[in-house]
Each structure stands twice: as C-alpha cells, then as structure tokens.
Design goal:
- The chain is mainly alpha-helical and 99 residues long.
- It has one domain: Transferase(Phosphotransferase) domain 1 (Transferase(Phosphotransferase), domain 1, Orthogonal Bundle), CATH 1.10.510.
- α2 crosses α4.
- The longest helix has 16 residues.
Length: 99
C-alpha cells in the first residue's frame, strides 16, 4: 500500500507505480520487504526517511539500472515518484525490451 493511501491522503495513479515497485522488489528478494516490521510505525518512519532499502536490495545480484528504477518507483513523496511514461521511455528499459 502506497504511503499516501496508508496515511489517508489524496492519491492518484502514482500509487499504482508504488505497488508495481513493491511487487518487483518482492520478486527480487523472494520475500515481502515488510516481513517482521511494525507497519504502523517503523515502516512509515523508514519510508519518510528513504530507508526502505536497508532491508532488501542485494547490489551484487542486480544491476544499478534496476535498483535505480525501483528506488524511483518507491519515493515516499508521490510527486517525486517516476511516472509510467518515464518508465516506458527510459533508455535502460527500452534497451532491455528490444534485446
């Protein structure tokens, strides 16, 4: 659940970008990044302070393009989150799609 939804704020399609990012992150790690975290307090604090990645990404296993994409999808501030158009026109995504 995107932070803006969890906190009862107004939300838009960018919460779907968040959800997609969480799905990809879950697949990368083969476990949910929220496992064992008190979602009401600790997780929201970590999200606000951009610390979610301390739980999960193994930099040696995945390339920086993928890690940066996920980080841009999981921005706490939905106005800073990457858009679908930016994802679909990202040169790193496009080069992998056309292989």
């Amino acid at each position: 659940m995107a932070p803006e939804v969890f906190e009862g704020r107004k939300y838009s399609y960018s919460c779907d970008i968040w959800s997609l990012g969480m799905c990809i992150l879950t697949l990368m790690n083969m476990k949910h990044p929220y496992d064992g975290i008190d979602i009401n307090n600790k997780l929201m604090d970590d999200l606000k302070n951009n610390r979610i990645f301390k739980y999960n990404i193994n930099n040696r296993k995945y390339d920086n393009d993928l890690i940066n994409l996920i980080k841009s999808m999981l921005k706490y501030d939905d106005k800073q989150r990457i858009t679908l158009n930016q994802i679909l026109t990202n040169k790193n995504i496009l080069k992998r799609l056309h292989k």
